[in-house]
Amino acid sequence: MKRFFGKIENEHMLIEEDEFFHLNKVLRMKVGDKIIVCCNDEYDYICTLEQMFKNYAEAKIEEKLPCKALPKRNIVLFQALPKKEYFDNILSKSIELGVSKIIPFTSQFTVARELKKERVQTQVITACKQCERSKTVEVSDVVTFSEMLKKIQKFDAIIFANEDDNETTKFAEAMVKNKQNIAIIVGAEAGFSLAERDQIIAAGATSITLGSRILRNDTAAIAMLTLASIFSDN
Questions:
Q1: Widest distance between CA atoms in the chain
Q2: What's the rounded Cα separation, in Å, for the pair 114 and 151?
Q3: 87-143 residue pLDDT tens
Q4: For residues 139 and 131, what is the distance between their CA atoms, to the nearest angstrom?
Q5: C-alpha dihedral over 30, 125, 8, 23, to 10 degrees?
Q6: Are 150 and 78 in contact (CB under 8 A)?
Q7: Would you list the DSSP string of 39-65?
C-alpha cells in the first residue's frame, strides 16, 4: 500500500497539499483504494479512500497498527553543514538508518551557512515514507559550533569522526550498547580545525577513526550511523 502523511479528524484522515497532489495527480489513486496514512505519531493507519475533493482527500480509518520502523534509541546527528548535494544524501540516508534528529552546525571550514527549510521538509517526508517511518524527523535550524558543544553535553554517548585520530580507535559496540541518547558528530568537506577537534574531545566526545582512507563527509555520516544503529540495536 502507498504511504502518505495527513492529519486525523475523528475517524478519518485528511490528505492535503503536496501529499494530495502526489496521491491525486501523480499516482492517480481512486475512491476505494487502500492506503497507509501517518500523522506524526507512533502508528500506521490503514485507510480506505472515501472522498476526493478539489484540494484534499478524505480516507476512512480501518485499522491502527504500531509502526515497526521507528527507532528504539535517540540517535542525533550533529552534521557540520556541507554543500547541498552532500547534505541531500546525508539527510535521506540518515533517516533510513534510524536517526532521531539532525542538527546542522557551522564550523571554521564550513562553506554553506543556511538551509532552505521548505526543501528540507519535502526531503524528510519522502525519506520517512521510503523507510516506512510514521513520524517525521526534525532537522533543526543551523546552530554555531559553540552551541553544538553545549548541546552534546546531555548525551550518554558522544562519538566523533576524526580523520586525524592517531590512536586508531575504532567504533566499538561498547561505545553505544545500552545507551539511550547517542550523539554522532561529523565534519564538513574540509573537516575540523585542530582547535575545534580539541574542543570536541574536551566536551566529552570519543574520537574514532573510520580507517586509513579519508571519507567524504556524507560517506562518513552514513558509516557512523550504520555502526551506531547496528551496535545499539536500533
A1: 63
A2: 19
A3: 999 999 999 999 999 999 999 888 877 888 888 999 999 999 999 999 999 999 999
A4: 17
A5: -10
A6: no
A7: -SSSEEEEEEEEEE-SSEEEEEEEEEE
Residue found by looking up cell 542538527 in the block: 103
> With contact defined as beta carbons under 8 Å apart, do 4 and 35 qualify?
yes
Single pTM value for the model: 0.91
181, β-bridge pairs: 74
Q: What is the pLDDT of residues 158-211, one digit of tens each?
A: 999 887 766 668 888 898 988 999 999 999 888 889 999 999 999 999 998 887
Q: What whole-number distance in Å separates Cα of residue 40 and Cα of residue 28?
A: 24
Cα separations in angstroms, 139 against 69, 110, 120: 19, 18, 8
Cell of 131: 523507510
- CA 23 → CA 19, 63, 70, 133, distances in Å? 6, 20, 24, 18
Interior CA angle at 104 toward 100 and 109, to 5°? 145
As a whole number of angstroms, the distance between CA 14 and CA 59 comes to 7
Side chain identity at residue 193, one-letter code: S
Helix and strand counts by DSSP (H, E) for the chain: 6, 12
Q: Could you report the per-residue pLDDT of 128-171, keeping only the tens digit for each?
A: 999 999 999 999 999 999 999 999 999 999 999 887 766 668 88
**Grid coordinates standing for 42?**
507512533
